[in-house]
Amino acid sequence: MADSPLPRRRPLALDAVAALLVLGVLVGGLPSVAANLVSDINIKIAQEQGPNTCVIEEVPGTEHKIWTECKYWADRDVCGRKAVVRYDCCEGFSRVEGQHGCTGVLPLQDVVKTAGAAGAARFAALLESSGLADQLRAEGAAFTLFAPSDQAMDELTSSQLAALRGARADNPVLNHHVVANKQLSRAWGADQLLPSRLRGSSLRVNKYSSKIETVNCATIVRKDQEASNGVVHIVDTLLDPERSTYSDLSTAVVQDGRFRQLSRLMQRSELFNAMRSHNQAYTLLAPNDEAFQKMPAARLQRLENDDQAREALLRHLVLPHPVCLGAVVGPHRFPTKGPERLAFDCDARGVSVEGMRFGAGATADMTLAADGFLYMLDEVPLPNRVKTLLQLTQDERLYSFGEVVRAAGLESLLDGPGDYTLFAPSEAAMASLPFGQMNRLRADQGAARSFVMLHVSRGRILTETITDNQVAQTLESDSLRLQVYRKSYGVEDALVERADVQGLNGVLHVITKALRAANATLEETLRQDANYTTFLRAMDRLREDSANSLEFRGSRTAYTFLVPSDEAFQRLGVTRLKQLLANTTLLARTLKNHVVDDMVGTESFRENLQYAVPSRYGGLNVTRADGRLKVNDATVLTCDRTNRQGVVHYINKVLMPPDHHHHHHHVTVVAPSVPPYVTQRTQVHWEERVEERDESDQDDDEEYVDPDLGRVDPDLGPLPEVYRGRERAGLGQGLGQGLQEHRYREDRVGPRHYQHQQQHNVVDQRHQRNQYHQQSQHHQRHNAARVQHSTHHYLQSGSNNY
Ligand SMILES: *[C@@H]1O[C@H](CO)[C@@H](O)[C@H](O)[C@H]1NC(C)=O
Ligand SMILES: *[C@@H]1O[C@H](CO)[C@@H](O)[C@H](O)[C@H]1NC(C)=O
Ligand SMILES: *[C@@H]1O[C@H](CO)[C@@H](O)[C@H](O)[C@H]1NC(C)=O
Ligand SMILES: *[C@@H]1O[C@H](CO)[C@@H](O)[C@H](O)[C@H]1NC(C)=O
């Protein structure tokens, strides 16, 4: 009992596993075989059936009943209902009294008699009475007969019945079911045309990974019934040649009469010409004229005039495979010619796409052509590119932001004409707004309006056009600084978590934080947050020394300031603090080591990576753990205080410049190797400093706070009542020679050529930063993508083409 002769788990339909895997590779992802595993119990039951027994899958209470040639089959749901597995003799076998399984072999009969015996007695009778049966026998050739089951014959429409009444041997409907030569199903590809006996017409056979096989989208319920002069396949509907009178689908759209709007859109599209010339079979979802009439007139107008939107819509309506609805047995997302997939599903009422039903009842309104299938729809499935920003925020489930938009009365802005960029805070971002703010936004239309306008910029800003620190003007003329990070983008201190969702009237980026107008200056910010004035006053002091003073030009810049708290400065000890403040050369170097020529928010750092961030003077190492940043050995106390000059992170230690050595013991200094981030400019300083020794420090590692010192800085005197720095223009002038060439630009989002000059600097710097990050991210994403992919291909037609 220990060793079962069979593997513990077997995939659905053993004989098809290899084909399924090959198919999986060909379509670029593995089908989810795991979902189709045959349980141990089913394997046991199958084995008890004895030789030559095959599975019949049926769903009680429905017409779903297919005879398989398989012994092992997984339990599954078919359109939301449990399918039941029964066993019967495989094709050609019968039970012998007293023996286990099916050990009797049935005699071969001709195709017509075989059809009659396999459940298509009425169609067989028609073939006999018309004389076509005799004609086939007389020809002495092999045939393939697709015979509608008796049940299918019960469901004929009156016009189909009329076409068969008094049929003779040359009856087109009957001849349409006959194909020359013996065509066993295993020889068919995923999609194949078989010329029928009806002159000039052919039958399309398809195989799907849901194990359903179809001919002209009629499901083959019983296949490969061998006959003396060929083979019979039983189908669940009549193959009506009247349904396939068009040579190609685009002609069908033009000539049908119900698709005038679609036909107008298609006439101006390259897509269909290209499809025709590639001779590729496809599926077209065709919204009828009523469907388009349900759209607002202005939007339809825009669709006609906006080439990209029109093309996006048409691509969204084309599935690059012939898809038969009968093969859809559960939820599945089919790829389209556009970037998005279409979600199909089915239930007892039939198949739907994106929640839209195909026709009334279970039968879809379908047209067949030599190049594929067309299904009529009463609604238009819209790709993102044809939805408005308001619809996109709903699709992305940004409910709270949507609520603020309503409170602001700005639905018409996001739902109307124009072209905007919307940076919409995610649901999580809105949930972490300061306490009470959401209620205020709900209640105060003016506040809500400002909030929304701050998140909207004119024109489409796509991430592919963003350069680091580029500025976007909001609708209320606030400026947003856009950031380029490795593998991600930022806006102010927020990160873009879903980028470039293009809609009809603009592009949506979902961001991780709600934005604030950063209108305060750096000094206003520092003054407002008490306990950070030593840094300010140190800067002020430098201003008096023109050779060393710091300068930030422009009313809005994009720097990062790591500002040590007053306590951190005091912890240096009286002597060192005095020295620091007295020596403007040292002070300038120290302050420059706290300034980064780039605006980097906390969120741009991922956990468990070490980022090399060049400061104005040297290099800093930034890490993030449990959401907290560390800069070298300093911990960030409060982060992401955005202001006109950039962003401030408060730290608990002074970051002494890398070449500032303290020695408790008098040791000869050996020149350290130059760290990789030291640039040409700083390298000079580095070499200068190597010779020097600072012997005056006694206490740099101790947490030294002089209790008597209080809030008085040794060299600067008591805090001034009002900060003396100049207003607006930023902090003093001249942050040293090298700092003159700051990279900040205040150009608006505009022509590309403005942006190019700056790009190289940015790339160089960013290159050092985040390099670990890039690799691990890449791998993670890659894997995630593969997982995603594999779950999507469960219903993939056939075995070779796709
Ligand atoms: C910020 O300043 C700009 C002009 O510099 C102004 O248009 C905008 O209204 C200000 N925003 C806030 C919130 O004060
Ligand atoms: C400033 O520092 C003092 C003493 O360290 C502390 O008591 C006070 O809470 C701090 N204020 C702020 C706003 O952090
Ligand atoms: C000031 O600091 C610089 C750099 O550390 C040093 O080279 C210089 O000697 C110091 N000047 C005085 C007067 O201590
Ligand atoms: C930053 O990290 C690098 C590599 O780990 C190290 O060599 C360098 O000394 C660190 N720099 C600082 C300022 O801690």
Automatic annotation (TrEMBL):
InterPro entries per UniProt: Adhesion/Biosynth-related, FAS1_dom_sf, FAS1_domain
All copies of domain FAS1, residue ranges: 107-239, 246-381, 385-515, 519-655
Superkingdom per UniProt: Eukaryota
Acidic residues bias locations: 693-706
Bias (Basic residues): 776-792
BP GO annotations: cell adhesion; extracellular matrix organization
Chain residue ranges for the region called Disordered: 687-722, 748-802
GO molecular function: cell adhesion molecule binding
Biased composition (Polar residues): 793-802
Key words, A-Z: Signal
PANTHER family: FAS1 DOMAIN-CONTAINING PROTEIN, PERIOSTIN-RELATED
Protein name (record): Transforming growth factor-beta-induced protein ig-h3-like
Organism in which the protein naturally occurs: Thrips palmi (Melon thrips)
Gene behind the chain: LOC117649539
